[in-house]
Amino acid sequence: MKNLLIDAAGVAGLGCLAAGVYVQYGTGPSLIVGGALLLAFALRAAAGRRG
Q1: Is the whole model's pTM more than 0.70, yes or no?
Q2: Rounded Cα distance, 10 and 28, in Å
Q3: Are 34 and 18 in contact (CB under 8 A)?
């Protein structure tokens, strides 16, 4: 349950960040930033499971 809450908070934070970039700069940069952050999160999560 704790991991679910942490994941939900992370997704909500990413959504807020992407929404802010979208409002400030438009669709293209918002998708680039959101995708890059999701990729970084996935790489960090995968590395954390190994060690």
Answers
A1: no
A2: 22
A3: yes
